């Protein structure tokens, strides 16, 4: 594990420390770690020196300190519960850094690339996806029995784990490789990942369709295949395959909801109590846990459905190993396009 602080040039640098255990116990090296600030007396973490503090303060002054997003955060933060207040304080730190915020040049350009054609694709995907989910759920209930109890529980758990891993794989791939300039996939699918790193709170301003459209599109094929089985196979065959279909259905549901869960992990006000309960018990991605990913250069904790696999994958260096292999074969540098947009100033 490691902690990141602001370097003299305004970019975070690694500070080696045995942080893996701290992270597992609930510690965070989230966005707030970018800018030095007062630490509790018991905190033994290294502090930024005068040069680093001056650089960070200069960076904050260089931004339009009132920026629309920061003003909203400050207004909403008044009178908030302590945890939410702390969360918004960290989001404000993002606004005061030249790497984050809705006023960032790169963030504005990326937001403008959201097109009417993309919106239409998202609407179609959401409508078809939820129609298939409803049909398949009703059909599954028709074939479930008590004999399936254990296998269904195992299947659902396996579906959640698989969804978490796939969310990390897709997230890592889109964060690390590719370019917004790529035909078709660039503006349609890589663009949101670039925007999110520069303006992490943008996702909280997206409506249900924009938030979930792409994930709904990803699950259309498995859900359609499941629906075809329900209308074409015999009742005996469906009874035998019911546990497997429960696995596929759980996988599809959690993949579909991954970006909604991701949005909730950036939302500090107005969340339903049941969502906060699920976050606190780590059934879905917790807010503090996800902050670890939002430390530049965004190279860890990619799983965003439940986050269960983030610590073990980081412990074995899974993502670093994949990056080294791909860089060795192709010569491409990880996250080069992400850095290009982050450094855009005009």
Automatic annotation (TrEMBL):
The keyword Transmembrane appears for this protein: yes
Gene Ontology MF, one: plasmanylethanolamine desaturase activity
InterPro entries: Lipid_desat (IPR019547), Plasmalogen_desaturase (IPR052601)
GO cellular component, one term: endoplasmic reticulum membrane
Pfam families in alphabetical order: Lipid_desat
Gene Ontology terms: biological process: ether lipid biosynthetic process
Membrane topology according to the record: Multi-pass membrane protein
UniProtKB keywords: Membrane, Transmembrane, Transmembrane helix
Transmembrane segment boundaries: 123-144, 150-172
Protein name, entry field: Lipid desaturase domain-containing protein
